[in-house]
Amino acid sequence: GAHWMIENGYGWDEDIERSEQGGRFKMAEPKAVTDKAIKRGLPQLGTLGSGNHFLEIQAVDEIFDPVIAEAFGITEIGQITIMIHTGSRGFGHQTCTDYLDQMQAVLQKYNIQIPDRQLACAPIKSPEGQAYLQAMACAANFAWANRQAIAHLIRSAFAKVFKTKAEKMEMHQVYDIAHNIATIEEHLVEGELKTLCVHRKGATRAYGPGHKDVPAIYRNAGQPVLIPGDMGRYSYLLSGTAKAMEETFGSTCHGAGRLLSRHSAIKKGEGKDIAGLLAEKGIIVRAQNKKGLAEEASFAYKDVADVVDVCHKAGISHKVARMKPMGVIKG
């Protein structure tokens, strides 16, 4: 995970404290990963990937809770932030594919009925279930290493352009958090503390103040929650809440969510100069092709402000700050 990267000079020691799980899963077992997954991942460390993955230079344009914002290192309107949204690349994708096939093969063995192939599964304590957890942990560790590599490259690039050191520019990590993952956690269920496997797909962990797994520097404020929006509007920084611990197993939304499928977005984007439209808003975008931009255009997504407001009013996360995009790199 991030530990290897930092031990080898790709990051700062403080980054570990500012990461979910300390930047690695200890239950990872490389033997549970196929050679094909490793081969796919080898050349991809330090890369964004396609789809909705991005790197965004942002400016803080609203602070909702100055006290918690300051605890997270956000101190003023106009402050520059950088958001990285990417994961385990082909390594994780291949691991998922490999285990879908294995899970499908044992459905009958465990008398499991499913409505869709993508829901293939096995009991968590079965040999297949345990092997998948170990492989998934390897993919999560790859993702932490990947984001750590990108963060290091960002710091290096800023230092080069501004002819100073990243430390002097105070390029501190706020938080690194996994998404689309299952973790073993303890939660109160009808008044009884139970050990659960919590699956977060399209959701983000949002532990409240005082939780032992929230880094000590943030424990009074609650865990930082990063919510990416779309490249034409804004993204949010939230904090986890006690209510999320009570009602959603310490979880909140993951992002805006799509309004249009990628195919529909491409069709709607035909003839539109999306890069030009973003430039009119003062947003510089760089992508591999026009198709990729159309897939991720603002009109393809819900307004993240609406999604975040729902979570804030429901009390499962707390609005801290809003950031607007200035420069976007799509994978």
**Total helical segments:** 11
- Proportion of residues in helical segments: 25-40%
- Give the end-to-end Cα distance, rounded to a whole number of Å: 21 Å
Mean pLDDT: 95
What is the subunit arrangement here?
single chain
Which range does the strand content fall in? 15-25%
* Biggest pleated sheet: 6 strands, mixed
3D shape: globular
| Count of extended strands | 10
Question: Could you write a compact summary of the structure shown?
Answer:
The protein is an alpha+beta fold and about 325 residues long.
Describe it:
- By secondary structure, this protein is an alpha+beta fold.
- 34% of the residues lie in helices and 20% in strands.
- The chain contains eleven helices and ten strands.
- The strands form three sheets. Strands 1, 2, 6, 7, 9 and 10 form a six-stranded mixed sheet that branches. Strands 3-4 form a two-stranded antiparallel ribbon. A two-stranded antiparallel sheet has the order 5-8.
- Helix 3 runs antiparallel to helix 5 and helix 5 (89-106) runs antiparallel to helix 6.
- The mean pLDDT is 95.
